[in-house]
Write a structure and sequence with these properties.
heterotrimer, A mainly alpha, B mainly alpha, C alpha/beta, A: 2 domains, 69% helix, B: mainly alpha
């Protein structure tokens, strides 16, 4: 009885702490949503304007001051920000481009990482440890350092201004992380299974395809998410390797709303919201998959 | 004999996609960077490339330099401070951010109510673009921003400001709440959002690892009467060691490479310089491409050295436990 | 999962089909610029391009706009393989463009210029002219100068009916404003380029435009006690509370909004703000920074000049056509940008200028009467010295170095 009550009290405290953390972590999202519905006058302080940006005067012919409103709900909900982001910015197309690039980069990363991991953990050869360390080198390269060399390589291969110009570098930069995660997951798969498959007449490719790959589903989600993070918000490569509008990705598209000397921050916020919300939804859906994948893996193990 | 050959061929085939990507996009640039770092450039194009040996490296690590007339001057391209900043960030990341992430991951993986919701929410900051995070924290740190208003409401603003003023050495200007305007405060101000944004990142990795611990192991421990703390310490943490190693490596190398948030948070990164922001500046603003490449090479060597050291540290302890 | 993949693959195929649009007879000229969606110059670009394409039905302009900061990285990287350059690209004049010219990546515009010499004074081409012969390499669009914006209502509250023109006046005016509880100046101390908008005029009005031009051109060193004194005066004004004490961590958007909302009496920044300040419908005037040392400088000396330009890539398949297009577009962008108030004309207006916004017209008059001009320091100097200079400037606003330190550091580093 005593034990039970004690447990309950600690659970409440844990939940309270977690909820504080939840609020801290949800705040940026709330802030982004309110930001996306304000205009510059509300963000920085100024005078009341209509949706077209013309100053509104009161009956006495005075301008109506707008106080700065940093965290409150918008006083005037400027839905026109979303119209402007969608219409002037061509966000739909950019979104599709980002999706294509990210998904292809994830698939490429998964394929390369799983195959390499299989060769390094489940096949016996001299130097496989060295090879692993070699791949670890990838974690150490700052993306900005590689910019000019990768640009030169891509331009020699005539790959600039294609989806490939982004897919290949993104996959390459995600590869080391992919291998690292995969090694952890593949290590959990019992080696007996390989032997059983071998006795059943499978060669390495059969074992990889029929035994290992299905058991690597949980890793797929994890590697997928980490690769996605690498690609979805990436700005530098996306700006430099692609110049044609039809291949522009979201982060570059969002930046196109920022001016040299003046910027309407509302539409920028709206564009960022458009870029972020679907990501959130996909993530929530995927996070379910991870857990299910885990349970499946545990049952089979 | 034939079997051995096909085995070898399939090893190569299995490695091939990864190797092509890796060598083509990552290793080739490293080699190019090493070559570039030994040259002086007039422009990125490589017109007028002059071989200068290790001169760029010497310049990076000289706090003071001498000009042709023999006068000493402060080297504005000095990398030492930026490197120290990055190491501080790395240490904060390993000793504050990771334990916090581990704590949350342990709690969440125990089947607490609303586990999935918590998990999803804690990871959200990672998904939000750094542009938004940067803008938000800009507003937090502004003189009339959220932080100063909160301090004012708590009634500690004036005392805190005068205390900070007495500890500012880079200028005689008194501190009036411009958090990103002073070298001393800018560094801390820049690090907090970086650490905060990636707690969820590490948490997800650790959570994934903990969920992979075989349930029979945990059940057996519970039958033996182990407390939650004991299970954590003796079963879960040793089990997820590979994941922890990855997290530590990532925290340290990530800190050395950290760029995005500082770049969006500060208009002028000088007050919270990190090696990567210095590299970006020297390469794309100063057109000192050789010098920028030298930073890249130093960073790559350091990251790799740290990754090896961390791996070794984890290995040693693993053997002792066994 | 398979369905999802199928959808993605279908999408890719669809996109690639769409991308291969039917090629027609038109000559396509590609262009990169920084006129992004919310840039003040965007409408001017759109109008100029539409006008050009209507006048030249056989030419199509395919243009892409990139954000300012990322564009600098993009164009510099593209120079490492000139074959990746578009036909026409935006560049800043001065050393920024000069580097590209030196690499041989820019097409010389001497021949193409001849047809436009009567509309575009040669002096406007000077910032993008290089070599012994002063060959022309870029077409200026608008030009801009550093302008002192003043809120006359706030000045009136402090008992002033005009913008000060001398150092003594300035101090008296600022003291009166501070006494009336009004902050005189707003400056984004966290953005170095905004600090130069104050520092460069102060130095110019102390040592004179010729001396400053010589320093920026590398013909003289920074070693001048008058410069140290100018920096000290600037810092003295900051410490005395003439500047918004929050300035050190404010961004330019906020500082400008504060000025327009009547929180500071003055705001000194580029003349590209004229349109926006004008449209805020307040009692605003434009002026120049007061004279600090009347023996060496006059009131009419300004900082600025034509910098935003279009250049033609040497690798262009149709360089002559692209050069013609660059001039035509430059003239159009200048025309519509001037009318919108996002800049002053580098080209001589041959159209009705009665619709020009009053504040813009006032600045245009100031430029017409200017008694000497110094191009913005970070544009005039080549990349490395420019950024060392900016590094030192960024230490000025927060008083991390004093005038002597500023002069000594720059002299020894850039000697």
């Amino acid at each position: 009885m005593m034990e039970h009550r004690k447990l309950k009290a600690s659970t409440v405290i844990v939940h309270l702490l977690l909820i504080v953390l939840v609020l801290i972590n949800l705040f940026p999202l709330y802030w982004m949503m309110t930001f996306s519905l304000k205009d510059n006058d509300e963000i920085f302080g100024g005078y009341l304007k209509d949706d077209a940006g013309t100053i509104i005067y009161d009956e006495d012919g005075q301008k109506i001051p707008v106080e700065r409103n940093m965290i409150g709900l918008p006083r005037n909900w400027r839905w026109i920000n979303y119209n402007r982001a969608l219409n002037t910015g061509n966000m739909g197309r950019y979104f599709l481009n980002s999706l294509v690039v990210s998904v292809m980069a994830i698939l490429l990363t998964l394929l390369a990482a799983f195959m390499a991991t299989y060769a390094m953990t489940r096949m016996v050869w001299k130097g496989r440890k060295m090879m692993n360390k070699f791949f670890m080198l990838g974690l150490t390269i700052p993306i900005h350092a590689a910019l000019v060399p990768v640009f030169l390589i891509l331009s020699r291969l005539k790959l600039l201004d294609t989806y490939t110009a982004l897919i290949v570098p993104y996959a390459a930069f995600s590869l080391s992380m992919g291998i690292l995660i995969s090694i952890g997951f593949m290590g959990d798969i019992p080696y007996d299974l390989d032997e059983a498959a071998f006795l059943d007449g499978c060669n390495e490719w059969g074992t990889f395809g029929r035994v290992i790959l299905p058991l690597m589903m949980p890793a797929t989600a994890t590697v997928g998410i980490y690769t996605f993070l690498q690609c979805w918000n990436e700005l530098l490569f996306a700006t430099i390797f692609v110049s044609k509008g039809e291949f522009v990705t979201l982060p570059v598209g969002v930046k196109q709303l920022v001016g040299q000397h003046t910027t309407d921050w509302g539409p920028v916020g709206a564009a960022l919201a458009i870029a972020t919300i679907p990501t959130m939804i996909v993530y929530i859906l995927l996070s379910r998959r991870i857990q299910e994948g885990f349970i499946a893996g545990a049952v089979k193990g | 004999m034939k079997r051995a050959l096909t085995y070898r061929l399939s090893i190569i085939a299995f490695l091939l996609p990864a190797l092509i990507l890796f060598v083509g996009i990552l290793i080739a640039p490293i080699i190019m960077s090493v070559i570039y770092s030994m040259h002086d450039f007039k422009a990125i194009s490589g017109a007028d490339m002059n071989y200068v040996g290790f001169k760029n490296y010497v310049e990076l690590f000289s706090r003071e330099m001498v000009n042709e007339k023999g006068a000493f001057f402060t080297n504005v391209n000095y990398m030492g401070d930026a490197l120290v900043n990055a190491l501080i960030l790395g240490a904060l990341s390993v000793f504050i951010q990771l334990p916090l992430a581990l704590l949350i991951a342990l709690k969440l993986s125990k089947g607490i109510r609303g586990e999935r919701a918590y998990l999803s929410i804690f990871f959200m900051p990672v998904l939000i673009s750094t542009v938004i995070i940067g803008q938000l924290w800009k507003n937090i740190y502004e003189p009339d921003g959220l932080l100063n208003n909160a301090l004012g409401a708590l009634g500690v603003k004036d005392q805190l400001f005068s205390w900070i003023s007495s500890h500012i050495y880079s200028t005689k200007m008194p501190f009036k709440g411009a958090w990103t305007g002073y070298k001393e405060t800018a560094l801390i101000a820049a690090f907090i959002p970086i650490l905060w944004q990636y707690v969820g990142y590490h948490m997800l990795l650790m959570y994934a690892g903990i969920k992979g611990v075989p349930t029979d192991l945990l059940e057996a421990a519970q039958l033996d009467g182990c407390t939650e703390g004991q299970v954590n310490r003796h079963i879960i943490i040793p089990y997820i060691k590979p994941i922890l190693r990855v997290c530590v490596i990532f925290a340290v190398t990530g800190s050395l490479k950290s760029f995005d948030l500082i770049y969006t948070l500060m208009n002028d990164t000088r007050r919270a310089e990190l090696p990567s922001t210095l590299m970006y500046k020297l390469t794309f603003l100063n057109n000192r491409y050789g010098l920028g490449s030298a930073i890249a090479v130093v960073l790559i060597i350091l990251c790799f050295a740290f990754a090896l050291l961390i791996s070794l540290a984890f290995k040693d302890r693993g053997e002792k436990v066994a | 999962m398979k369905k999802f993949l199928a959808v993605i693959l279908a999408a890719i195929m669809l996109l690639s089909v769409v991308s291969v649009a039917a090629a027609d007879e038109k000559t396509v000229l590609t262009m990169w610029c920084i006129a992004t969606e919310s840039d003040a110059n965007r409408p001017a670009y759109e109008q100029a391009i539409a006008e050009f394409e209507a006048a030249h039905p056989d030419i199509e302009i395919k243009w892409e706009a990139f954000e300012n900061q990322s564009y600098k990285t993009k164009i510099k990287t593209a120079m490492s393989d000139p074959s990746t350059l578009p036909d026409i690209f935006f560049t800043w004049a001065g050393a920024f463009c000069g580097d590209f010219v030196e690499q041989g990546n820019v097409y010389c515009l001497n021949d193409a210029y001849k047809a436009y010499a009567d509309q575009l004074p040669e002096v406007m081409m000077q910032n993008a002219s290089y070599g012994e012969n002063g060959d022309h390499y870029a077409v200026p669009l608008t030009m801009n100068i550093v302008t002192l914006f003043a809120n006359m209502d706030l000045l009136a509250k402090a008992g002033w009916d005009h913008v000060p023109t001398t150092y003594e006046d300035l101090i008296a005016c600022c003291d009166a404003l501070v006494a009336a509880g009004i902050i005189p100046f707003g400056c984004a101390g966290s953005e170095t380029w905004c600090v130069t908008e104050y520092l460069e005029p102060i130095i110019e009005k102390t040592i004179g435009y010729e001396a400053l031009n010589a320093i920026f051109a590398g013909k003289a060193t920074w070693n001048d006690p008058a410069i140290a004194k100018a920096v000290d005066v600037f810092q003295e004004m900051i410490v005395k509370g003439y500047f918004d004490p929050d300035g050190l961590s404010l961004g330019n958007d906020q500082v400008k909004a504060n000025f327009i909302a009547g929180k500071t009496a003055f705001y000194q920044n580029g003349s590209w703000n004229c349109g926006e300040v004008n449209d805020a419908e307040g009692n605003f005037q434009v002026a120049l920074f007061p004279v600090m040392d009347a023996e060496k400088a006059t009131y009419g000396q300004v900082i600025g000049g034509p910098s935003d330009s279009l250049a033609v890539a040497a690798t262009s398949a149709n360089p002559e056509l692209a050069a013609m297009a660059a001039f035509e577009l430059g003239r159009g962008i200048c025309h519509y940008g001037y009318l919108a108030g996002s800049g002053l004309p580098a080209w001589t207006p041959d159209y009705d200028t009665s619709a020009v916004k009053p504040l813009v017209a006032d600045v245009a008059k100031i430029v017409a009467e200017s008694e000497g001009m110094v191009l913005f320091g970070d544009t005039a100097m080549s990349a490395d010295p420019a950024n060392i200079y900016l590094n030192y400037v960024s230490q000025v606003y927060g008083c991390e170095i004093d005038g002597a330190g500023f002069v000594e550091g720059l002299t020894n580093t850039l000697q």
